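Section 5: illustrative case.
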């Protein structure tokens, strides 16, 4: 259903409805499903909403069966859950929106009621288990590449020998712990709010980092911004609880070397947090002008990827965790954050092009062409903007707003403008 309203306006008469359950009589009186729904809704909203007008749109599939305009008599977060529950039981879904004609008066709202319920995605436990086991194998494989046992391998197939493959357990355990904590943070937050949700889907990838991450699916629409915020921030916070100590443990196990530039060598980028952590452990800023840098081990790499995953999820675009956060905080004004984030990614991607660096070498340290892939995902898969919740009137309370700014700060501290650089 869209947000436009086109149809016939019917003056509101509160005397038309005395009983919420007298469906048959109302159907005869008003003629048709829309009239019946109008009577049900006005009775349901009595005491919660002062209805000023009722409209029956010409195109109910697009605009809903009934649209009511009025003034809230009680806070939306108190009344909308009951509206949603009662109407869902009758096969309808309400949308609550601010009335754009009312200016800054948040009490004036539009309630659009459409036929049907939110889609519930199917989920099979076997699929989750198989994907997780494959991801365990793929992360063991990548971890084994960074183990001393890899020196015994004469071909990539040797890394699949159990004696060598199992040497990748520190990396696999560290990374999968972070990803699992992240996804189950979302999962338990959704369950707390009684939102139907799937178990995590892990994505195995035997190259690169051993995985493309993991995700969950909400099996029903989110009711309001508070639910959206709680579910969105729970994942990054849960993941950080493990990512930070795993990264710091890896640093404590690492050493530094002066590494001469070698063609094909991969350098891992730094965020403000990783730069500060390295200074805390080694007492100097790394890498430095002498070419000294930290030599990566399995645990350090797992923590670094965990922090990278956190930062990527906190990008304030679409339905990523960061997109959930800024939309829950700012509503439609979050589009400004979305556009700024996309513009910065595009600038970094362009700065990473070799032809650009020939004429403008100074932005090369923050240039990364991998953002082109992310821009494609954002525009054609994720979407740059966030859709509204069913109730787009309820705003965050002070505690959630404060936590939201903390999440923005975490993003700034953990984001890597150029995650990888290969000579």
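Designed sequence:
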């Amino acid at each position: 259903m869209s947000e436009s309203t086109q149809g016939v306006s019917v003056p509101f008469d509160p005397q038309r409805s005395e009983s919420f359950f007298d469906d048959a009589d109302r159907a005869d009186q008003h003629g048709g499903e829309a009239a019946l729904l109008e009577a049900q809704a006005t009775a349901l909203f009595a005491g919660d909403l002062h209805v000023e007008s009722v409209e029956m749109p010409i195109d109910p599939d697009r605009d809903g069966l009934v649209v009511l305009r009025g003034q809230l008599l009680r806070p939306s977060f108190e009344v909308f859950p009951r509206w949603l529950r009662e109407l869902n039981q009758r096969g309808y879904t309400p949308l609550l929106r601010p009335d754009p004609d009312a200016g800054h008066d948040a009490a004036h709202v539009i309630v659009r009621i459409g036929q049907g319920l939110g889609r519930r995605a199917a989920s099979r436990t076997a699929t989750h288990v198989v994907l997780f086991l494959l991801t365990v194998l793929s992360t063991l494989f990548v971890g084994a590449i960074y183990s001393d046992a890899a020196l015994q391998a004469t071909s990539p197939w040797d890394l699949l020998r159990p004696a060598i493959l199992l040497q990748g357990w520190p990396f696999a355990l560290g990374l999968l712990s972070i990803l699992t904590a992240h996804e189950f943070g979302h999962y338990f937050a959704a369950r707390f709010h009684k939102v139907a949700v799937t178990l995590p889907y892990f994505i195995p990838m035997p190259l690169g980092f051993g995985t493309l991450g993991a995700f969950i699916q909400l099996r029903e629409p989110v009711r309001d911004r508070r639910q959206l915020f709680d579910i969105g921030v729970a994942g990054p916070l849960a993941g950080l609880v493990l990512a930070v100590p795993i990264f710091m443990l890896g640093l404590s196990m690492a050493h530094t070397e002066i590494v001469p530039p070698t063609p094909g060598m991969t350098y891992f980028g730094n965020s403000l947090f990783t730069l500060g952590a390295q200074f805390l452990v080694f007492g100097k800023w790394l890498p430095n002008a002498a070419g000294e840098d930290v030599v990566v081990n399995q645990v350090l790499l797992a923590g670094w990827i965990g922090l990278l995953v956190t930062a990527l999820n906190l990008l304030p675009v679409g339905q990523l965790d960061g997109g959930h956060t800024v939309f829950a905080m700012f509503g439609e004004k979050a589009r400004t954050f979305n556009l700024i984030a996309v513009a910065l990614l595009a600038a970094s991607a362009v700065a990473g092009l070799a032809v650009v660096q020939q004429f403008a070498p100074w932005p090369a340290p923050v240039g990364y062409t991998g953002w082109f892939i992310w821009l494609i995902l954002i525009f054609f898969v994720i979407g740059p903007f966030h859709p509204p919740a069913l109730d787009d009137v309820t705003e965050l309370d002070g505690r959630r707003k404060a936590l939201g700014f903390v999440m923005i700060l975490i993003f700034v501290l953990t984001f890597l403008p150029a995650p990888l650089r290969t000579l």
